[in-house]
Write a structure and sequence with these properties.
By secondary structure, the chain is mainly β. It is built from three helices and eleven strands.
């Protein structure tokens, strides 16, 4: 069953995120106390599957959740295969709507410099917050209707 492996946040943009016990997300804003939270963007929350991180680990990197600056690390869900507009119900309260698959990887990305590749541009996804709430590791993810 799809679930949350880790939740992460950072104080500054351009740095890896740190795993925390839980995050609080706010409607049309993002993760409270995260450098990337913003009401003006459709990329309020970032998600990446642990399976994607494992692909990069296979290239000899010692990686952990948050190293790709994702807010939520998932398991057992192929995020990049879901269409934009898919709703993700996470835990008891939170609802996200996928808005973008992948992103341009900036040239200064530490992982790209190390191994010549970065998974986030292909398999990371972004979402906006439809309904806020608390999210923690172990929370179940249920896919809702698109649109």
């Amino acid at each position: 069953m799809p679930s949350v492996i880790a939740v992460c946040r950072s104080e500054k943009k351009g740095t890896a995120k740190t795993p925390v016990a839980e995050i609080i997300i706010k409607k049309e804003y993002g993760v409270v106390d995260d450098a990337h939270a913003d009401t003006t963007t459709h990329r309020q929350i970032s998600l990446l599957a642990i399976e994607s991180i494992d692909k990069m680990r296979g290239k000899g990197l010692d990686l952990k959740p948050g190293d790709f600056a994702e807010n939520i690390t998932t398991k057992d869900i192929d995020l990049a295969a879901l269409p934009v507009g898919t709703r993700l119900n996470i835990g008891k309260e939170a609802v996200l709507e996928m808005t973008q698959i992948g992103k341009e990887c900036h040239a200064a990305c530490a992982i790209r410099k190390q191994v010549g590749d970065c998974i986030m541009p292909r398999e990371g996804v972004f979402a906006r917050v439809i309904r806020g709430g608390r999210i923690k590791p172990g929370d179940i993810i249920i896919m809702g209707k698109n649109g």
